[in-house]
Amino acid sequence: MSGAISPLQKARSAYQPKLPLSLKNGSFLVKKGEVILPPVDRDRIKTLFPNTFGQPILTFEAGETNLSNHAIRVGVVLSGGQAPGGHNVIAGLFDALRTANSDNKLFGFLKGPIGIVKGNFVEITSEIIDAYRNTGGFDMIMSGRDKIESAEDLKSCLDNTATMDLNGLVVVGGDDSNTNAAMLAEYLKSNDSKCCVVGVPKTIDGDMRNEQIEMSFGFDTACKTYSEVIGNICRDATSAIKYWHFVRLMGRAASHVTLECGLSTHANITLISEEIRSKGMTLAEVADGIVDTVIARAAKGRNYGIVLIPEGLLEFIPELKSMIDELATMLGDKDTLETVRSFDTHEERTQYLSSMFSALSAKAYASLPEDTQAVLLNIDSHGNPPLSQVETEKLLIDLVKQRIASAKKQGKTAAKFTALSHFVGYEGRCAAPSNFDADYCYSLGYTAAQVVRAGFTGYTVSVKNLNQPASEWVAMATPVTSMLNIERRLGKDVPVIKKALVELDGKPFKMYAQNREKWAVEDDYVYPGPIQYFGPSEVCDVTPITLQLERG
Ligand code: FBP
Description:
Elements: H1 7-13, H2 21-24, E1 28-35, H3 42-48, E2 56-62, E3 73-79, H4 86-100, E4 105-109, H5 114-118, E5 121-123, H6 126-132, E6 143-144, H7 151-163, E7 168-173, H8 175-190, E8 196-201, H9 219-240, E9 244-249, H10 256-265, E10 269-270, H11 273-278, H12 283-299, E11 305-310, H13 318-332, H14 334-342, H15 346-356, H16 359-366, H17 370-376, H18 392-409, E12 419-424, H19 426-429, H20 435-454, E13 459-464, E14 474-479, E15 484-489, E16 492-497, H21 507-521, H22 537-540, H23 545-551
Parallel strand pairs: 3-4, 3-6, 3-7, 7-8, 8-13, 9-11, 9-12, 10-11
Antiparallel strand pairs: 1-2, 2-14, 4-5, 13-14, 15-16
Helix pairs in contact: 4-6, 4-20, 9-10, 10-21, 12-18, 13-16, 15-16
Bound molecules: 1,6-di-O-phosphono-beta-D-fructofuranose.
1,6-di-O-phosphono-beta-D-fructofuranose (FBP) is lined by residues 80-81, 83, 145, 174, 203-205, 250-252, 311, 387-388, 429.
């Protein structure tokens, strides 16, 4: 690890993460539960995953162990965007392996999935682990967004895991990475590899969740970090009384992060993409809604406020969504992508694409500023546009500014509107994990080790009962095939884990909807302050509001 160690980090490295009681006491068994199948597209998924389809849920319970203690070798890889707690997943995995047998070995593949393909890895030692316990970031072994897809890549993974004599590979990633892990599991099994593939649900976006996975790791810490910043901005707003702050928050698709931060801070406006889509709103209509609040607050003498904007908003505006889908299909074709890349100027690229777009999508693409158009061309290997680089907050400020100016001209308002834009995203992804994430991640890593020891492949681990004390948590694993559905990505039908979006009839959104009128016009802000690592439990161990509302 590079750099000097802060006093907090030093004190924090001594923190011993909590484990579910069943794992903590050392003697536990793996229990097979019901066979679990995907809710939709069953036959197609079964055809694609003949070797890993139709497996049972696993739970780890206290009791006389039925797990073998023979020495094993395990690889771990961090995949996709950073999320607080990744190092604790590796620490949990390492400690669990060493507790089972001191000869067990753990290897970290470097720079994401490409490390498995290229066979780039380091052996993870206790010195390395001790330097990274309870720290944020993925810098121990780094991450990457490569997808293991081609026949050559899959064959390299088979060869490299065989050469390393691996019994297991733990893939720490979000929905796309866990899908990719399931494909690798299927491929390895169909080639008689002994290497099991086990996924760990990671993403600050909070959109990898279902009945078994109550929350992806990193969401809690990232939201608490963002909420601290938003609370500080709210206080600045009520102190300076002259600015509207437009804050865009990460979360490429779902608005869970924005909703959690809205509930934590009572910002004046919290835009929820899922609601905007359900109402079929245009961007102009979204701006009109903000204008109404700006005018209502001005009437009460409040020419300031805070708007929270989910990063994925544009993809939930129907005409922009169709355009982005068309773009993804076009760029999914290698020849088109190469042609687009071969042009020297943005104008040439735009002209070429416009000739391929439908008339509506050409119009929608043309309506965006040039820098936004350019950013959208950088779609990743999973078919996702890089929305973290699209400055939606500035688009909205411009639209609101025009509307306020025209309302003023018509004598409809005397509102003063000076707006500042913020993007809060990367700031939270590598924060030191909260106690919740530190405990949760360590437990996930500890559980992943047990799944490999038990020899199961094609699973994602989870921990249930997260809203209860860790002693009541339940460690388990779910077959990934049961979470898959077929979606169109880059112009092809592919199996993917369905992203969990904000449910408009769910308790967290309802809580917001019940309060939003009051929060819009009043100054009812909450200032959450920084994450606390030491101190009373009611301050240090608070779980996300979303989780509290969803799980009671
Ligand atoms: P994952 O889904 O891989 O966890 O990443 C989520 C995320 O943090 C999004 O919120 C954001 O849009 C994206 O990563 C940014 O990606 P990058 O790190 O490649 O800029």
